[in-house]
Each structure stands twice: as structure tokens, then as C-alpha cells.
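Appendix B. One record, verbatim.
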Amino acid sequence: MALSKGDEFPLHQTPEPVAYSGTDRNFYDRYFFNGYAPDGSGFFALAFGVYPHLDIADAHFSFIRDGRQYCLHASREMGMERMHLAVGPIRIEVVKPLHQLKVTIQETDGIAGEFTFTGRAFPIEEPRFTHRIGPRTFMDYTRMTQNGHFTGWISLDGIREDMVEGTCGTRDRSWGVRPIGARDPQPMPGTPLPAFFWQWTPINFEGGSLFFHVNNDQHGESWNTRAAWAADGADADQINEGAGSMRTRLEGGTRWPSGGTLSLALPGAPEQVTFEPIGRFHMKGLGYTHPEWGHGMHHGPLRVEREDFDLVSLDPLQPENLHVQMIVQALTPDDNGIGAFEQLIIGPFSPLGLEGFIDPAKG
């Protein structure tokens, strides 16, 4: 039987029951959140993924305290029920679609929390991400992104900390095709060394939200990019779109950003924003490029595990440590904001002098 709770709602995308999502085994559906205090402290993030054709759902909660990153990973077999938004102790509730969501993390191995996200404006729709390596589709997905405010708390080993007033951040929803689950061993004849460049900078200013992202090829030519500005309370038809160009600095001996300057042609937004990092969060805490807890991996009927690591001692050139979100101050002549500067660079990238698969920046 393939019928599920989702079939009661008008959200079908194919002539089949909701349990089926076309024919690509790499189809996924994901929630993402990050948040931080107005001074950038107390960074936390959560990812929740559904993989219909792998029949798996997984969730990850991760946060920083006192120079360490604490993670809770969970995975379960889905039983073809996509509308059950819980994996072990982690649960998502859609309070008001496109505006407010609630997340609960029941106490497990010393980690617990609860928070509610409320959007500042209508979500932006980023341009469809379609990318092929040779004849094979590597990515084909859509994402909506929204800045907002958080209320709630996080507890670590019995010590509870309430989120301070003004805690803000970003949430997104993406769905489509990405590499998930076990790696495909089939080689692609004639393809060069893999190369991937990604930057994403959702920023909260006092009067509105700035969004910029770019995917570049190894020569610095963009294949997907957009800048957007949403004033507080903006509806879908009140969001301004434009273009941006980022000049990036890298920390010597790593592939992590040490800052950057974004130039914008975007109504309502500053003409130039300088990003200054004040902290570093590793996306492997949410399963991204994690060697064991990668998205869509099978861990049996249900598995939950805590993981802690020291941020200072991480090897910057281990593949699982390349993908980061830097907590940044966003500086302009008239207003300063706070947000995240996400970056992942794999393979050669000539504009920054990067060679080989994970060779570091010089300096």
C-alpha cells in the first residue's frame, strides 16, 4: 500500500500517491534553520531531510557553546509516510505555512531544546538549481529562503539557556535532486577533477533581510546566482531582486572564508557590504559531508547519537571540514547587520588560486 496522510491534502506533484516522487532515487525534501543572538553568539542550526525513494528520514541539531560544537544526529526508516515530521527526539510542526514553524528536541544524551521561528517577510524563491556533470544530473532542486526571529531555549547536560531577545536567523525549504545516501560507484567517463564552489549569505539588518548566493564553475563563472532584498513585512510581490558580486578572502592554510566584500545592484539594499567573521560553524554537524551521518544513509529502523567536537582542533583540510557557515558581522556605511556566510569549495578554483581537490589557500 502506498497511500499515506499526505494523500488527504492537495499537494500531489505526479499522478501517483504522494509516497512516490517521480523516479529519481536521489529525490529529497528538506527543512533547514540557523539562529544566533544579536551579537552573533549562541549559534545553532537544524536540518531535517526526507528521502522518499530511499524510505529514510533524518534530522540533525547542532549548536556552539564555549568553543565546542555539540550535535545530535537521528535517522529512521520512514515506512513511506512523508507527513510524519519527527525522527527520534527531533520534531517539526508547521504552525502557519510560509510564516511560522516550531521545533522540539526532546532530551537525549544531555541535549534538548525548543524554538519557534517567525518569518520577517514572505520567503524568497531562489532560481532553480540545475547542474550536470557530463550527461549525469548532479543537482536539480528549488529552494525558498526566509529570515526571521526565534524564541525558545537550548539545554546542554542539564544547563538550560534561553534565547535572548532579538535572536534571529534564517530558515529554508528545498526539494528536488541532490546526491544522497550511498555513493554511486559508477564512474563518469571523461569527466575532469570534481569542482564545486558555493557561497550563501543570508543577513539580518534592522530594516530588512539581504540574501545573496552564487554557484561558480572552477574559472569563476556563475551558473546560478541572485541577490534579493525583503523589507520587514514584505509580501511576495514586494521583494526586490538584483545582482551581486563577491570578493572573497580565504584564511591561509584552509579553504574557509576570512571575510569578503559584496557589491550589489539591488533596490533597497546597501551598495556594498563587508563581511567580518566572528565565529565558525561546521555543517558536518548537520550531516553535510559527514563521513558517517551523511544525508540519507541507512542506520536501521532508528538510530540516535550525540557527537561533540572542539572547533580549534579540527583539521581544515579533511573533506568533512570544508563546508562551513561563518557567523559574520555585515558592515555598511549606514547600518550593520548579522548573519551567516556559508561556503564550500571542492576542487580547483582559479580566481582564488586553489588547485587540486582540497589544496589550501596560500598565505
